[in-house]
Amino acid sequence: MHDQTRRFAAGMARHDVLLVPTLLTLAPSYAHLDQPRGTTRAFFDVEFATTGWTALANVTGWAAISLPVGMSATGLPIGVQLMAPDETILLQLARQLEEAMPWADRRPAGWVG
């Protein structure tokens, strides 16, 4: 894992930010990811088929932020994940995106809050 992390960092050295989908699917149903799967392999097969790139931030140590820049047909958020070696870059970029595409007041249909 350390070798892969070093190779990732070397490959990204000329880039400021990596933009990837937050999830590889639309928002999963409630409790989808915490169900027993029988084996560790089965658990990770489901986990990685859904979360995809989020694990990369976890193992590389890069800062990451997920931003709800879109909405599904049912009103659930669709996010993008930004990753960078420095969280300052992410926070500055997130601020610019939120100013351009405000999301604080968005609510899915049937929201109870």
Please give a quick description of this structure.
This protein has 113 residues and is of the alpha+beta class.
Features:
113 residues; alpha+beta; flat
Explain how this protein is built:
With 113 residues, this protein is α+β, with helices and mostly antiparallel strands. Helix content is 38%, strand content 19%. It is built from four helices and three strands. It has helices spanning 2-11, 40-51, 54-60, 87-100, and strands spanning 18-21, 63-71, 77-84. Strands 1-3-2 form a three-stranded antiparallel β-sheet, with helices on one face. The mean pLDDT is 85.
Structural class: alpha+beta
Described by the principal axes of the CA atoms, the overall outline is: flat
Q: What integer value in Å does the Rg equal? A: 16 Å
- Strand order, biggest sheet? 1-3-2
Mean pLDDT: 85
* DSSP helix fraction: 25-40%
Q: Report the end-to-end length measured between terminal Cα atoms.
A: 41 Å
Report the portion of residues in β strands.
15-25%
Compute the number of helices: 4
Give unreliable regions as ranges.
none
- Secondary structure tally: strands: 3
Largest sheet: 3 strands, antiparallel
Query: N-to-C SSE series?
Result: HEHHEEH
